[in-house]
Amino acid sequence: MPESAPESTPRDTNAAYRPTERTVPTRSRERASYDRALVHAILDETYICHLGFVRDGAPVVLPTLYGRVDERLYVHGSTGSRPLLLAGAADPGLPVCLTVTHVDGLVLARSAFHHSINYRSVVVHGVARQVTDPEERRLALDAIVDHVVPGRAADSRPANARELAATAVIRLDLDEVSAKVRTGGPNDDAEDLALPYWSGVVPVVRGYGPPVPAADLDPAVALPGYLAAP
Q: Which residue in 34, 61, 99, 108 could disulfide with 17, CB within 3.0 to 4.6 Å?
């Protein structure tokens, strides 16, 4: 079946994702959300995902980069990569579970049992399929680069024919999706409130240091604006 070019916009940018048996959690259901804008925001804030699938009857989970274009996620790798080879099968593709998680804070309670973390996560279930359309492949690879550093794809040499031949791209549609969020402080038991232990939240923030130029970089090449400190 030939690949179709990705849609420029989702069919309905306001509708929430439809809950399914796999996307409704068995615990803390009140933390689950199917809001499309929230899911996109969580996905767009980071660039590392964990891709889970079954290989030879055993579960495998791989950390990898990804990029989002509208209602599709793209993952790339070597053409010899096992999941990318499995996703290349015409039917039925590769069933996967892709997850993304942000840790926003360490929640320290008076009791060890009630320690927790504040987090935002997205879980995507679906069937990944290999992208073979040249235009969509280039769009996907640019999206992955720009997902890590916005603006970088246009400020670097595009992949040549040899590099493209060695690179496979798989696509996962955002269809069976859920987000889950925990915020707030510890949930100490009433009988523990008088205990002499510190209780509260330690915020976790992501930061970047100053860019370090390559040893062989021409000093005349200026630091691009998208890497400059705000």
A: 34
